[in-house]
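Wed. Picked up where I left off yesterday with DHHA1 domain-containing protein. The coffee machine is broken again, so keeping this brief.
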Amino acid sequence: MATPRSSPLYHDDPKLFSFRGVVVAHESHAGRPSVRLDRTAFYPESGGQMADRGRLDEAAVIDVQVDDEGRIHHVLEGPLPAIGADVHGTIDKPRRLVHMAQHTGQHMLSRALADVARAETVSSRLGESACTIDLDVTTLDERAAAEAEALVNAVIDDDAPIRAFFPSEDELRALPLRRQPKVHDNVRVVVIGDFDVSPCGGTHCTNTAQVGFVRIDALERTKGKMRVTFSAGVRARTKLSREADVVRALARELTCGPEDVPAGIEKLRRELDEARQALGRVRGRVAAAIADALVKDARARGERVVIGVVEDASLDLVRAVAGRITAEADLVALLAGEADGGTIVLAARGSSSDFDCGAFLKRAATAAGGRGGGRPERAEGRLPAGIDWTTIAAATLATPGR
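Structure written out below (C-alpha cells, as returned):
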C-alpha cells in the first residue's frame, strides 16, 4: 500500500517554526537517506525557492526535497529516527524569514516590472546569495528599473495584507492572475493587497511591511533576455550596510563627507591622468637620453646592433628607448631591464634592417633559461633575474643562424 503524502503545514502558516510529526517511511532522495513524515512544516526546494533547514529532534535536516509524486523527503545528517516515532521538528527561523521576504519581493518586483516596463517574468531563482528574475525583453533601462523598485517599496510602506489560499475552480477563473498556474489541481494563489495575484506554492510574508525593502542590485543581458538581480529584507539591508561602510571608508581617505565621495574620486582621476601625462613626458626625455648615449657608443664602434641594459626600468621605458633607437632605420636595438624579480628583454629593428628579432630572442631566451619570441621586426621576452644580458646577446649574435 502506498504511503500517503506529507501534509504541508507551511501552506496554512508560513510562521510555524515548530511542530510535531510522525515518521511514516525511510526512503532516499538522490542517493541520500531521507525520512517522510505524516505532516511537516519544512518547505521543500520548489518554484525557485530554496529548501528549509532545521532539526528533527536531535538530527539536523540538511535538505528538503519533493519528488515527482509530491512526497516530501527530509534528508538528515546522522541516524534516521525509527518509523512510527513521534518527532519534534524545528525550522531555521532566520533562513525561512529571508526566503519569505525574497519570494514575496520577487512577486512584487515581477508585477512592478510588468506594469512599468511591460516586461514579463519568464523565470526566477531565489538562491542562497543572489536572487534573479529573467524577463521577456532584450533591454531594460535603469530609469525603468528604478521606477519599478520605487513602486515596490511604496507598496511595502503601505503595509498591505498578503493572503495565500486554495480557491475553488470558479474563484480561480475570476481572479486576475499575473501568470497562468503550472498545475491544474489544487492551485494555490498568493494575493498581495490589490497589487498582485499570482499562483504560487511557496512561503510568503503575511503583509508587505515584512518584506522590509526591495533593491535592484544589477541588470544584465543574458541569452537574449534581461536578468534582474535583486535582494529584499535583511539581505538587502546587509548589502546596503556593507556598501555604506565602504563609502564611509572612502570618505575618510578622501577627507570629505560621504556625499562628496564621487566628486573626490573624479578629482583623483583627473590628478592621475595629469600624473600619467607628466610621467609620459619625463619617460620620453629619459628614453631619449639613454637611447642617444647607446647609439653614440655603437656608432663609435661602427656597429648597427645596439646592445644595452636600462637600469631600474619598466617595460614601457625599455620600449620607449627601443623606439628612439630604431627611429634610425638601419639600427637594431637589443635591450634588457630588471623589473618585478626578473629581466625583461626586447629586440626591435629599424625600417631598413632585415634582422630577425623573433628568431634572435627565441635563441637568447633558450640559452638563458627564459622565454621569449615574436615577429621578425619586434620581439619581447622575460629571462631570470641577474643574468648578464650583454654577454648573452653578444653570444647569441655570434651563433650560427643569426
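Quick read: The two ends are 88 Å apart (CA to CA).
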